[in-house]
Amino acid sequence: MNRRIRLPNQPLVRHLILAVLAGLGFWLLTSNLGSFRDFEIGEIATYAIVVAGLSVLTGVNGQISLGHGAFMAIGAYTFAYLQMHSSMPLVVELIAAVAAAAVLGLIVGIPATRLKGPYLAGMTLILALGIPQLADKYNSVFGGDQGLTTLPPNPPGSVDPQRWLSWIEILGALIVMVLLANLLRSRFGRSMRAVRDNEIAASLAGIHVPRTKVLAFVVSAGCAGLAGAFLGLSTGIVNTGEFALTLSIYLLAGMVLGGAGTLVGAWWGGVVLVFLPQWSSSLSKDFSLGSSASANLAVVIYGLVLIVVMMLAPGGIQGGIRWLGQRLASRGGRGTSRPTPVATGAGSSQEPDTGALATSNTERTSP
Amino acid sequence: MTQFFDLTLNGISAGMIYAAVALGLVLIWRATRIVNFAQGSMAMFTTYMAVALLDRKVGYWLAFVCALLIGLVMGALVEVVLIKPLQGKPELNPVIVTLGLLILLEGVIGSIFGVQNRGFPAAFSQSGLTVGSTQISFSHFDVFILVAVLVLMLAILVLFRGTNVGLRMRAAAFAPESARLAGVRVNRVLVLGWALAALAGSLAGLLVAPTAAFSPNYMDLILVYAFTAAVVGGLDSPLGGLIGGLLTGLALSYVGGYLGSSLEPLGAAAILIVVLMIRPEGIFSRTAARRV
User: Any residues with CB less than 8 A from the CB of B16 and at least 6 apart, and which?
Assistant: First the structure.
């Protein structure tokens, strides 16, 4: 009966195999689609990177950030600044973007170790509003409203430039996914979950709670920095308008809808973030809404998504898929009662990891 | 020196606005241990309702009172529809739901009224008062802001300290289970708390609209400044919210005046971080350290 192909048990090998398979899939997909579809797939990969980072921070470690748009802005501006003022290879510029965002993550993460839930949310909310204003303040460096421009990378041979860029973004996303997947399966990943579930218990078990929380922030911010650089590359321009507060909240919506705490959910989130604006604009055409209504329909939908998903299905899309999978597995596998690990896509950890946002009853702290 | 004086006056007037929004945050935090991130956008919503009435040639004061009442009803509705079902869920869930409400309301108002800046009338003259022979940067309208927020604070204080309802509210916030056993209908009291909080927010929204760049997201920054103010004051104490609001208003006014207004949000972040690192329970809170 058991003809199922087993992936190797070693996390690194297993995640690499899944990433290579996913990469092949993306390669086939982009090779057969037009330039605009390639652009969209690259955008999905870009958003998947930042949503995955946010998901690790919020879903796995239990720290919320409303400021990931600001981390993206730091990455994007660093990248664009280096592109304009130096001639380093692309990889170095991307790494610099990651590093700059990670440093800000460190700066934010250190006070964050002493803040809980709503306090942390409030502090990161201020950053989301405040950091982009720095670009206005120092507009001689950051270009003010016009912002900075980026140069698309030169493709080798006769590859379509857009396709080449998408490949770079997809490759970046897959590398990030493999690294994050390994991280989640490591000692550090277990520490993050333990800290999320109960800080006191975690520290009694010998986990350095502040260090774990700061590291989670650094990793998450680094992901956002890379995504910010990619976003700057694919739009060709980096300006403050792109990194408004709404971006941070949309990222949160993408994470919540995709499924907080899962890496596959991050890809769902990327799909939502890329296609929701398109769906909403075609929707407003269908209903022939006025110009201000159609410009704001996406905002309304994001708001509804956050509320409805949080109230009714905190596990998001990936949580729903898992639930379905488990239902099917428990029905089909009644004869052979073997604990089947639910197969998930490109390198996710297998524990149902929506702890920070789950529906479980936790005791309300009374004053 | 004149600049310092003017900035101080501006800071007081802005601080009263932050205090009113902070009062709303504090009322909700005391009752439900939730920071309502939609506090600002709910106020924005009711202020736009006032705009709709003013556009239909309704008088200013009638529109003002209607907006406050809409705020009252809206606060109660939000508690019943969105917040009650979240009781007992992890603390991140209400954060995300109120953020969803924040952009939902901004999107709805943006689709009806557009996102461009528009004007909002002030009840009184906004040109500075003349003291002796010099004009100071404090107008009749600033006096109105000061008086209106102080009246609101006093009314809430009287409600809490002097009435049966207020006693129930305090009991429900302090010990929900015991209060329930003692016959307090805790759920109703929570609804009332949210309604009053939204009323306070609406007042702030109406008061700040004439001086702010009035558009659907004009309350975003005010919300985070009010959050800073509430944290400075301890999130638990209405009086702390007032003092925190004034301190935050003054500090940010100086930051804006001397360093540039685009640094104000980071100034607020700095205040928040310093206060939370030194005294996480706020400067004016009498309660013990937060429970883990």
Answer: B145, B146, B149, B150, B207, B245, B246, B249
Does position A355 have pLDDT exceeding 90, yes or no? Answer: no
B220: nearest CB among A129, A293, A363? A129
**Cβ–Cβ contact A119 with B under 8 A:** yes
d(CA A197, CA A60): 9
Q: Which of residues 14-33 of B touch A (CB under 8 A)?
A: 30, 33
Give the number of other CB atoms < 10 A from CB of residue A42. 28
Q: How far is CA B275 from its chain centroid?
A: 20
Secondary structure (3-state) at A344: coil
Burial of A72 (0-12, 13-18, 19+ CB in 10 A): buried
Query: Which pLDDT score is estimated for B62?
Result: 93
**Cβ contact, residue pair A357, B217, below 8 Å:** no
Q: Report d(CA A288, CA A108) in Å as an integer.
A: 44
Distance CA A131, CA A142 (A): 12
| Alpha carbon distance A307, A314 (integer Å) | 10
Query: In angstroms, what is the C-alpha Rg of chain B?
Result: 19
For the record, the structure tokens of A29 come out as 């997909």
Residue of B85, B227, B287 lying closest to A311 (CB–CB): B85
- The DSSP call for residue B133 is T
pLDDT in tens, B209-228: 988 889 998 999 999 999 99
DSSP run (H or E) holding B136: strand B134-139
For the four alpha carbons of B176, B177, B179 and B180, in that order, the dihedral sign comes to positive
- Determine contact, residues B13/B145, Cβ cutoff 8 Å: yes
Rounded to whole angstroms, how far apart are CA atoms B92 and B173? 20
Asked if residues B7 and B162 have their Cβ atoms less than 8 Å apart, the reply is no
Q: Does residue A338 have a pLDDT over 70?
A: no
CB B22 within 8 A of CB B236: no
Instruction: Express each pLDDT in A58-105 by its tens digit.
Output: 989 989 899 899 999 999 999 999 988 888 888 999 999 999 999 999
Please report the residues numbered 158 through 197 in chain B whose beta carbons come closer than 8 angstroms to any beta carbon of chain A.
Answer: 173-177
Nearest to A316 by CA among A258, A255, A359, A267: A258
Question: Which of B98, B99, B106 to substitute to test the interface with A, most A CBs within 10 Å?
Answer: B99
pTM for the complete prediction? Answer: 0.86
Please write the tens of the pLDDT for every residue from A225-252.
Answer: 999 999 999 888 888 888 888 899 999 9
CA of B205: how far to CAs of B46, B48, B139, in Å?
8, 9, 18
Tokens of B275: 């206060």
- Tell me how far apart the alpha carbons of residues B133 and B153 are, in angstroms, rounded to a whole number: 33
| Residue A145 DSSP symbol | T
* SS3 state at A66: coil
- The three-class DSSP label of residue B172 is helix
